[in-house]
Design goal:
By secondary structure, the chain is α/β, with parallel strands linked by helices. It is about 20% helix and about 30% strand. It has 8 helices and 16 strands. The chain has helices at about 60-65, 80-85, 90-100, 110-115, 120, 180-185, 210-220, 235-240; strands at about 1-5, 5-10, 40-45, 50-55, 75, 100-105, 135, 145, 150-155, 160-165, 170-175, 190-195, 225, 245-250, 255-260, 260. The longest helix is centred in the middle third of the chain and has 10 residues, at about 110-115. The radius of gyration is 18 Å and the shape is globular. Bound molecules: zinc ion (3 copies).
């Protein structure tokens, strides 16, 4: 398969409440460091010809404006929690300028959630100006979005199945606290991994920072970035100082570039 050169942009790296969290006066939420301002978790994936995003967060509109995204070919969804789907309504701007429905990719559980949360988008009788989508069902097979091959990886978020995605040498895992052994095989050989790391204290459905570090080490991935971060973790600067080379917190606006290759 041919993998094009891609650029990844982190559109958001915060947990469901974002950082700063509304009404919180803690030292992270009041930090002046721009890296302590985290929209909800999402990434932009771009080749020369194709632009896709993973998830439409409640911050989707602000994320598109901040990253100056003028064209969007597809949205790929990880799971139906509100912090990953809430911004879907705002794809109507791309519908307007691109004059076509947005291609969206989701598994069955996420499709049920989207139809429940955005019933008007999927209604038989639609009122004018609402978002228009073209739904694609994700199986466990690699699929193409334009020239970008996308490999789904099944991970577990307590009991909810969530999709992680591998894009060539890059793997993105949000909202998980467990991965089955056979799915780990799909990640091995990646050069860079992103893993959710909510905080240091254990959590019922998210990896802790240490669990995320341990997973990146177990899989022998040279570069790991942590995302879906809570204000409870600490500031970007104080936590990054504790981490080993090749392991660091992601931040909003971080960009990573990967060369093309074939295998
Ligand atoms: Zn989440
Ligand atoms: Zn706080
Ligand atoms: Zn979730």
């Amino acid at each position: 398969m041919n993998y094009p050169a891609i650029k990844i942009t982190f559109l958001g790296t915060g947990t469901s409440g974002g950082v700063p969290m509304i009404a919180c006066g803690c030292h992270v939420c009041t930090s002046p460091d721009e890296k302590d301002k985290r929209f909800r978790s999402s990434i932009l994936v771009q080749s020369d010809t194709t632009t896709l995003i993973v998830d439409t967060t409640p911050d989707f509109r602000s994320q598109m404006l901040r990253a100056n995204v003028k064209k969007l070919d597809a949205v790929i969804f990880t799971h139906p929690h509100k912090d990953h789907i809430a911004g879907l309504d705002d794809i109507k701007a791309f519908n307007f300028f691109q004059q076509k429905p947005m291609d969206i990719y989701a598994n069955e559980i996420t499709q049920e959630g989207l139809k429940r949360e955005f019933a008007y988008i999927f209604a038989d009788k639609k009122y004018p100006g609402i978002p228009s989508v073209n739904m694609h069902t994700i199986s466990d097979e690699t699929f193409m979005v334009g020239d970008i091959p996308v490999t789904p990886i099944l991970v577990h978020h307590l009991k909810l199945p969530v999709l992680a995605f591998r894009f060539g040498k890059f793997t993105y895992i949000t909202d998980a606290n467990r991965i089955d052994e056979q799915e780990k095989q799909k990640i091995i050989g990646a050069n860079t991994i992103v893993i959710n790391a909510l905080r240091k204290k254990s959590h019922i459905s998210h990896f802790t920072l240490q669990e995320a570090i341990d997973l990146s080490n177990e899989l022998k991935i040279p570069n790991a970035y942590f995302t879906h971060i809570s204000h409870q973790l600490g500031t970007h600067e104080e936590i990054n100082k504790e981490l080993s080379p090749g392991r660091q917190l992601a931040w909003d606006g971080l960009q990573l570039v990967f060369d093309s290759f074939s295998n």
